[in-house]
Structure to design on (430 residues):
């Protein structure tokens, strides 16, 4: 028996297919890490981890899904692969949590814990039954993540795309089911490697679109956020100016009406002016933010004069 | 004679100017208070007023104009209540006050406009 990777490389058409899947997987992972650097979305980080890991593990899996990974009898390497499965399970759990924020995490936490625990036991013992059991737990895990993704109510288009990608990813549930021995592998054996890699590549592409859409939405949100912040600053400043303006309004009215209160009105105007200077000082910090010289503003004002 | 206009604002200048202005323009007395705590302390005079002009923001972490409004309503204030505020209409407190049905005067309000409105209220 040979690994999926070796099997696919055995024919030119398969090699082309594998190459295309590999490019998609690597490109998506690179995009996910790159986008995480700018957007700081945890889901991008975990997707960047899960995607190449899933590709690596599925490629290294045996052509016969009921056989364990074909690593030429190297037990250390085999343990390493099972360890990577455990890491991939945890990363996918984090990915689901960050992408879909499920209201109740208990079922997901339990099934993730069991899937990782059984995988670790399989890693230590390398017992065939234990490996099959851990594969069954992985299938359960994927089923629960599928339910979380399916019941998620997306607000943004990028969320919808991620939901589709996560549900597509669950197509891989067939693979651990076959490996666990629950599902008879005879009929599906010949096209199983193609199927799992195609599902993975498809899910990666959908996720790639989701990442691009998310970047677009984040830029739009940031621009809107900046505009709102600026509007709030202006409203705050206007609120600060309203009271001294009201003081000046009343003082002027008193001065027009009654000379006996002249000093009182003038004192209040002086106080209002103090407040206006504070507003002016607050406004001056915008000078530094805009990077414009005062002369530029003045020139602009002059040019706007009729 | 009791004060005919109740004015609650945390700004001292306005509390000094408004009584002078109202006395000279309308010949009415004004009870000026700076907080809801003062409103409680002067409840008898406050509740006897014919018009209450309330500012919204009465200081950081202090009960606001809406609290004063609710207190007046709870204590059977019979007069007209208006809010004088410079806050934007989108402010959550202003949005709340819209539900009370009370009139909102923008700050700064022109003196002639305020005097006209008060004359209408007082003569009603």
């Amino acid at each position: 028996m040979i690994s999926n990777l070796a099997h696919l490389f055995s024919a030119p058409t398969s090699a082309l297919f594998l190459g295309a899947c590999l490019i998609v997987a690597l490109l998506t992972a690179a995009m996910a890490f790159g986008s995480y650097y700018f957007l700081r979305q945890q889901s991008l980080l975990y997707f960047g981890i899960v995607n190449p890991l899933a590709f690596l593990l599925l490629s290294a899996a045996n052509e016969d899904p009921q056989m364990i990974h074909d690593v030429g009898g190297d037990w250390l390497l085999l343990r390493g692969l099972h360890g990577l499965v455990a890491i991939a399970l945890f990363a996918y759990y984090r990915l689901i949590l960050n992408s879909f924020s499920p209201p109740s995490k208990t079922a997901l936490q339990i099934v993730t814990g069991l899937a990782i625990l059984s995988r670790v036991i399989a890693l230590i013992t390398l017992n065939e039954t234990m490996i099959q059991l851990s594969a069954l737990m992985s299938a359960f895990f994927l089923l629960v993540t599928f339910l979380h993704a399916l019941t998620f109510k997306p607000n943004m288009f990028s969320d919808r795309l991620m939901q589709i990608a996560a549900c597509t990813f669950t197509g891989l549930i067939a693979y651990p089911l076959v490996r666990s021995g629950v599902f008879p592998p005879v009929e599906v054996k010949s096209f199983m490697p193609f199927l799992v890699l195609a599902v993975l590549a498809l899910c990666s592409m959908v996720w790639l679109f989701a990442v691009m859409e998310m970047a677009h939405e984040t830029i739009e949100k940031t621009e809107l956020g900046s505009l709102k912040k600026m509007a709030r600053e202006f409203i705050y400043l206007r609120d600060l100016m309203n009271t001294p303006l009201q003081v000046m309004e009343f003082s002027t009215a008193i001065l027009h009406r009654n000379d006996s209160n002249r000093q009182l009105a003038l004192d209040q105007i002086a106080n209002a002016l103090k407040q206006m200077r504070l507003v002016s000082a607050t406004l001056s910090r915008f000078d530094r933010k805009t990077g414009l010289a005062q002369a530029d503003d003045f020139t602009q004002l002059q040019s706007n004069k009729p | 004679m009791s004060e005919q206009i109740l004015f609650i604002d945390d700004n001292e200048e306005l509390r000094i100017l408004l009584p002078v202005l109202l006395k000279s323009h309308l010949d009415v007395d004004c009870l000026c208070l700076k907080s809801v705590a003062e409103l409680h302390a002067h409840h008898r005079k406050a509740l006897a007023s014919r018009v209450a002009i309330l500012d919204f923001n009465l200081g950081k972490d202090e009960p606001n104009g809406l609290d004063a409004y609710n207190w007046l309503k709870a204590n059977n204030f019979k007069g007209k209540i208006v809010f004088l505020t410079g806050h934007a209409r989108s402010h959550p407190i202003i949005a709340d006050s819209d539900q009370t049905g009370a009139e909102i005067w923008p700050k700064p309000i022109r003196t002639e406009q305020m005097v006209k409105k008060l004359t209408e209220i007082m003569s009603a």
About this structure: The radius of gyration of chain B is 13 Å. The mean pLDDT of chain B is 87. The longest strand of chain B covers residues 80-85.
